[in-house]
């Protein structure tokens, strides 16, 4: 666990603790550029990621003090991270785009067709499989030559290591109608479900949550109307 203390003028005091018993494993000061805002400080195992406003990304190895820098023109401050512990990689999300990086500061993957619906990266609409090889997201719908306007998006499934789009659920790929479950929210009472019908276009509108059941090979989506849809083979 990383503890970040109050910033001094030219550095920030840091401590790395053992989660098991709270033992201080390392205590040190990380140098900072004066008068520059700290965009983020993130810890991934022995790696420390530090980014200041308009400065290079610093990847610091706390074991041997080895420092790697990535140019600020190549690495823009993301709105969110997802660390991939199995692959020793990390995902960054910025302006609807997803990228995969390694801890040598190298861009591993750019996705060919995975423009997220939400510009601020709503991670409720993103699922990473347990093998950390696939990413499933609610994305902007795309036709052959342009982005489709309107409220209906698409559910895109892409390979994390190659960036290839493997499958997509959109208005043109689904069946005309699908089942959905609605519920009334009567305080703490048990929810009462009713069967309804909805078009694929309606089910792909305003999705607020996405989950993939890896055992059943089913995708569950919820929308702002409180409806849950199940997408299954």
TrEMBL record:
<protein>
    <recommendedName>
        <fullName>Transducin/WD40 repeat-like superfamily protein</fullName>
    </recommendedName>
</protein>
<dbReference type="InterPro" id="IPR015943">
    <property type="entry name" value="WD40/YVTN_repeat-like_dom_sf"/>
</dbReference>
<dbReference type="InterPro" id="IPR057221">
    <property type="entry name" value="DUF7899"/>
</dbReference>
<dbReference type="Pfam" id="PF25463">
    <property type="entry name" value="DUF7899"/>
</dbReference>
């Amino acid at each position: 666990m990383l503890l970040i203390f109050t910033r001094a003028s030219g550095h920030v005091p840091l401590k790395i603790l053992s989660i098991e018993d709270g033992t201080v494993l390392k205590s040190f000061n990380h140098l900072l550029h004066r008068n520059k805002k700290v965009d983020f400080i993130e810890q991934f195992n022995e790696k420390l990621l530090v980014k200041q406003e308009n400065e290079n990304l610093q990847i610091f190895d706390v074991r041997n003090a080895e420092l790697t820098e990535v140019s600020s023109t190549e690495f823009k401050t993301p709105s969110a991270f997802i660390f991939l512990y199995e692959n020793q990689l990390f995902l960054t999300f910025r302006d609807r785009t997803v990228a995969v990086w390694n801890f040598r500061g190298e861009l591993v993957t750019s996705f060919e067709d995975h423009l997220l619906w939400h510009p601020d990266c709503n991670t409720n609409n993103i699922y990473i499989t347990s093998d950390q090889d696939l990413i499933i997201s609610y994305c902007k719908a795309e036709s052959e030559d342009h982005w489709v306007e309107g409220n209906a998006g698409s559910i895109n499934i892409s390979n994390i290591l190659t960036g290839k789009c493997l499958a997509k659920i959109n208005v043109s790929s689904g069946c005309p109608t699908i089942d959905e479950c609605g519920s009334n929210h009567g305080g703490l009472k048990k929810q009462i479900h009713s069967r309804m019908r909805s078009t694929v276009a309606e089910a792909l509108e305003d999705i607020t949550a996405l989950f993939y059941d890896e055992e059943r090979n089913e995708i569950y989506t919820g929308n702002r109307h409180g409806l849950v849809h199940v997408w299954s083979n």
